[in-house]
Amino acid sequence: MKIIINALSGNGDALMFSPALRQLKNKLPDAEIDMLVMFGSVKQMYMNHPSLSNVHFIDFLKQPKLRSLAEVRKLKKKEYDYSVNIYPSNRLEYNIVNSLLGAKTKLSVHYLHTQFSRGEFLNDILVNETAGRHNVLQNIDLASAIAGISEPEAGPMEIFIGNEHAEKADKWLRDVNPEGRPLAGIHAGSAVLKNHINKRWSKDGYIRLVKHLQDAKGCKVLLFGTEADLNLEIKTASGGEAELASTPDFMDSVARMRNCSLFVSNDTAFMHCAAALQLPVVAIFGYTNHKELYPWKTKHIIVRKDLECSPCFYNSPKPASCIFTGADEFKCIRSISSDEVIEAAVKLLDLKQVSR
After folding, report:
1. 130 and 215: one domain?
2. CA-atom Rg of the chain in angstroms
């Protein structure tokens, strides 16, 4: 049997398919399972996954459409039995790609917020989206349509770090943290696509958090993400001790994260990577649904405001928006105090140190 998984979204969404991928391979050990991605960082993240035979990268965003079409047609010649659009993939373009791959059976999700123009009809099997169900379990539902996987079989998310990245990260950590202080990772940024810059908790809040972790808890703070200007501002304003920990190689960041005693993040791919590495996570949520996106199968604390209007963002191509304006716009994230986040971070850090 040949299966291709279309993980055409970003790292966080792609990572939340990893428990389903593991179970597919367990149920179908002789199956050839490939993955199609369009972000280089997703390819890096899955290159060492033992359940995959191949990871195919097509640069849909930057190269000419005719070249992308030719590369999809080349994959079609592999004559897949199943092709699967991971959850969430609620766009016409993803359904077109799934159709063009020409698998005997094409799977995707029937979304609660959808319309005919998104092309769900191009698939053969549609699995119903369930509100409030974690993305990991939505993906288990998809895989179950192929191999009869049940919810209790959904294990943790998985990232496999190669020896080269691990050794390089260990050397870097020895250089920046020769005293062997406890490591605290932070991702203060977020994607900007679809207005998701508004997922970000306040810069001033992160500055106060970094100062507390350094001064009161004796941590070495590592600032992750490609938001170099933001991280530099936080580093400078918090005393200059924090380290900018990310490089253009996504797996460098993941390898450097793995020894952290704590990770604090907005709702981002780095939050999910921290969960996959089984790190204690403080997850700061605004308008996205924490029930669907909380750090999966790791110790965590959710910090959010339970407003009547939240969560208000659902899976669709539409950008995030807010019913409020002015100072109240996106108050779900802006009204979270630094004391709330610091309290959660200290609680998890203390639990981690007691367990050692």
Report:
1. no
2. 21
Whole-angstrom distance, CA of residue 225 vs CA of residue 223: 7
152 closest CA partner among 23, 12, 281, 273: 23
**Based on the structure, what is the number of domains in the chain?**
2
pLDDT at 354 over 90: no
What are the pLDDT digits (tens) for 25-47?
999 999 999 999 999 999 999 99
Residue range(s) defining the domain that contains residue 270: 163-355
Q: Which two tokens stand for residue 274?
A: 């921290």
Q: What is the pLDDT of residue 318?
A: 87
Long-range contacts of 192-196 (CB under 8 A, 24+ apart): 194/317, 194/318, 194/319, 194/320, 195/319, 195/320, 195/321, 196/320
244 and 265, same domain (yes or no): yes
- CATH number of the domain where residue 265 is located: 3.40.50.2000
Q: What is the pLDDT of residue 314?
A: 87
Q: Concatenated DSSP letters for 257-320?
A: HTT-SEEEEESSHHHHHHHHTT--EEEE-SSS-HHHHS-TTS-EEEE----TT-S---SSSSPP
> Are residues 220 and 183 in contact, defined by beta-carbon separation less than 8 angstroms?
yes
Residue 158 lies in a domain: no
At 351, the pLDDT band (50, 70, 90 cuts) reads confident
Helix 92-100 to helix 65-76 angle (10° resolution) is: 40
